[in-house]
Design goal:
heterodimer, A: about 375 residues, mainly alpha, 15 helices, globular, B: about 425 residues, alpha/beta, about 5% strand, elongated
């Protein structure tokens, strides 16, 4: 089975079922919203893919000479131009590119065994998911918890401390944080493995089906592989999660402060409901609404961070693939990877908006 | 910014503020804004500091960032291993320059060490100095190549050689066994002591601190130019889209939202991969990324300012759209743009460092923090300082600009201002 099909069954199917559920249960306004939102995803994807096209094909800069080097012969140039379809008019190239991206027929890579790019990406996508999902969970939990605390203790030392924390982790270059954690925990303390996804020896015992190592090892009840995979995951996920937790802390803090000043919160306090209860069940719930909208935008930070984190930890995901293919000047692979990232972003922001519409009854188009 | 709510209860301190001058107002604000004032004050000082470093790196940096000035991989504060002149305690000389001219003085060195070269260089320098002082004659050496340091030192003790040139660390190990011998001083006249390389040297022997100082120039250059580029394009687009509305607004907003949602670094990676490495390309790539940030804010502000009565009044008086935009709407946008600009510079520096860390965007002969980090990570096991300090520098610059933005948000945001 193709890795992407598998990925879809794991992540896409529940999403589609959830969407269908919301759609059938929700009122007319919600239904209309969801239809519009799904319909708007298409132009968004087209625009993102077009931006990629403009950047890679239309902007100055010569893909062919970067592929072949400056001393290429004319025949070599023409062969490669023909192979990439660069000899055709720009508008035709654009059409072909759009078609290729939507049918996920991305051509073959220029490097090594020249396998289909989609297969190479399919192998690496699970690694990226296994990095960003734990990171996002870590960031959400710590960010929202600490953000609420900071808001409740506004203008007290712990608020300033937490704000400093959020500013500092936000200002840290993520690759530097990764290197520092590696230096301390892998080199000095020798607690964590220095790089990679799984122990080389354990790897040979693991039967891979989804390429999500955690899922695979649980499915085959291979506990030593599970341990090794989790052990390797700690530092990269922590690196990515720490940086994002600062962002969520700031967002939560600002929104909780604003909702704590709302009349209904003050009224609840006046009725004698305890401060804790008011904060967590009145204010936090409503403060979460704007936070959820921005989560969609944080996906961008998450993916950009993943590229750098994967490079630091030799994590064989899509980001590292992108960087490697740039240095081996395989532009077919580069443009496909960027386009797949674009698809990814569009789908996640769709999912976030649908969740948001369910949470916030005021949303409509 | 608080134009939409009636100002009934202006606190006393705000009235007081209206009466004093700008500089004094800034100082007095300390009382009311508390820690936020300090955020802005401290970070502004840091920003000024980095701007100074970027403007005059040659004043602050001891060495040229590209010169190989010291030994390789010298830890911070570690004494550089240098070639020293070892003499008998009762020797009549103090340095190579004191040797008798035109006589071949016998100097012992250990085979396969840089000592003989250092000795010859020192002799040449001494000869040149004599010539400059108007003295005749050359300092000449007869180099005795000896297998081990112990044998070389013995030859000095039994009078075969007049002096030994050896590395300070090698002699340091056997020092106690030779009470009659002393280190007369470094062979080379180049001054190198423990304070020469406060942050150590890198794998080719460049001074880490000097490279950091010169790297500030690239970071600031990229941060400001990229932010100004997106500012110059994003603000007019936002003003026009918000003011004109209609189809133009919808299309522009859709495009801008798409770019905004896309991971900026990945787009920048793609752009620089095609354009090739140069500072201008990196600035263009990062500048494009942040256009939507300005666009969105400015458009939103324009939309709300458009509804205001004073804009209506201006329009009914016959003011041209251009005048309305420039004189009535634009000033409303400035405070929020100032906040974004500060954070934007920080983001641009971070993205620039990320690009050069990945080996994209900058030619390798430019002293840059990202490049230093990327090269340093190979030495993570042997040289912790190579990955620590460049990252710290990036963090401090970004921190300064972010903190300034953060403090400004608290101060400008009327919703958060009063309890």
């Amino acid at each position: 089975m193709h890795p992407f099909v598998l990925m879809f069954m794991i992540f896409g199917l529940p999403a589609v079922i959830a969407l269908a559920w919301v759609f059938t249960r929700g009122g007319d306004a919600l239904r209309r919203y969801i239809v519009t939102r799904v319909a708007l995803t298409l132009p968004m994807v087209v625009i993102l893919v077009s931006v990629v096209f403009v950047v890679l094909r239309v902007m100055p800069g010569d893909v062919v000479s970067s592929t072949l080097g400056p001393k290429a012969t004319d025949i070599a140039r023409e062969t490669i131009m023909e192979e990439l379809g660069l000899d055709r008019p720009l508008i035709v190239q654009y059409g072909t590119f759009l078609r290729d991206v939507f049918t996920l027929d991305l051509g073959n890579s220029f490097v090594g065994a020249r396998r289909p790019i989609i297969d190479e990406l399919g192998e690496r996508l699970p690694a990226t998911l296994e990095l960003i999902i734990p990171a996002a969970l870590f960031a959400l939990i710590t960010g929202i918890y600490l953000g609420t605390r900071a808001a409740v203790r506004r203008k007290r030392p712990s608020d300033y401390g937490l704000r400093m924390y959020s500013v500092i982790v936000y200002s840290m270059p993520i690759f530097w944080l990764g290197l520092l954690l590696r230096l301390v925990f892998s080199v000095w303390l020798d607690w964590t493995p220095i790089a990679g996804r799984i122990d080389v020896v354990t790897n040979t015992t693991l039967e891979r089906t989804t390429n999500l190592l955690v899922v695979d090892s649980i499915l085959t009840a291979n506990w030593s592989a599970l341990g090794s995979a989790l052990h390797h995951m700690v530092l990269p996920a922590l690196t990515l999660g720490l940086v994002l937790s600062g962002v969520f802390l700031r967002l939560t803090r600002i929104n909780v402060i604003e909702t704590l000043q709302e009349d209904y919160v003050v009224a609840a306090r006046a009725r004698g409901i305890r401060k804790r209860a008011v904060t967590y069940s009145y204010a936090l719930k409503n403060a979460m609404i704007p936070v959820v909208t921005v989560i969609g935008l944080q996906v961008a930070i998450l993916l950009a961070g993943a590229v750098l984190t994967e490079t630091v930890f030799n994590w064989p995901g899509m980001g590292r693939y992108l960087v490697q293919r740039i240095s081996s000047r395989d532009f077919q692979a580069v443009q496909s990877t960027v386009a797949v990232f674009a698809l990814f972003v569009a789908l996640i922001s769709l999912a976030v908006d649908v969740v948001y519409s369910v949470l916030d009854p005021r949303v409509k188009y | 910014m608080a134009h939409d709510r009636p100002r009934i209860d202006i606190p006393d301190w705000e009235r007081e503020l209206e009466r004093v001058g700008f500089a004094r107002r800034l100082l007095r604000a300390r009382k009311w804004y508390g820690a936020d004032w300090w955020f802005v004050a401290i970070s502004s000082l840091m920003v000024v500091g980095f701007l100074l470093l970027a403007a005059f790196p040659q004043v602050f940096a001891k060495y040229d960032p590209l010169d190989l000035v010291g030994p390789r991989l010298l830890a911070p504060g570690e004494r550089p291993n240098q070639e020293v002149l070892i003499l008998r305690e009762d020797s009549e000389f103090e340095s190579i320059a004191d040797f008798e001219p035109d006589v071949r003085t016998r100097v012992a060195v250990v085979i396969d060490t840089p000592s003989s070269e250092a000795a010859r260089d020192a002799a040449d320098v001494a000869t040149e100095e004599r010539a400059a002082a108007g003295l005749e004659g050359r300092i000449r050496l007869e180099i005795l190549r000896i297998e081990t340091l112990d044998e070389a030192l013995d030859s000095l003790l039994n009078g075969e050689a007049v002096a030994v040139v050896a590395s300070s660390s090698a002699f340091g190990e056997v020092d106690a066994g030779y009470p009659d011998l002393v280190i007369a001083g470094p062979v080379s006249t180049l001054e190198q002591d423990a304070t020469s390389f406060p942050l150590g040297t890198n794998q080719v022997g460049q001074d880490v601190l000097s490279r950091l100082i010169w790297g500030a120039r690239i970071a600031i250059l990229i941060g400001f130019s990229a932010a100004i580029l997106s500012f110059v394009i994003g603000i007019p687009l936002g003003l026009i889209a918000g003011f004109a509305g209609g189809k133009l607004d919808r299309i522009l907003t859709l495009i801008m939202d798409s770019i905004y949602a896309f991971p900026g670094l990945i787009l920048a990676i793609a752009i620089t991969a095609v354009l090739g490495p140069s500072i201008l390309n990196i600035i263009a790539a990062i500048g494009v990324l942040y256009i939507p940030t300005y666009y969105r804010v400015v458009r939103g502000q324009t939309l709300s300012a458009k509804q205001e009565l004073y804009v209506e009044a201006a329009r009914s008086l016959g003011a041209r759209p251009r005048a309305i935009l420039g004189r009535y709407i634009f000033p409303n946008v400035i405070p929020s743009v100032a906040v974004i600009f500060s954070v934007n510079v920080a983001d641009a520096i971070l993205t620039g460092a990320g690009l050069s860390f990945l080996g994209l965007g900058l030619p390798l002969d430019i002293p840059d923090w990202g490049i230093d980090l990327a090269r340093g990570q190979e030495f993570i096991r042997s040289a912790w300082w190579l990955i620590t300090f460049p990252g710290l520098a990036v963090m401090l610059v970004v921190l300064a600009f972010t903190m300034m933005g953060e403090g400004l948000v608290e101060i400008f945001n009327p919703k958060l201002r009063r309890k």
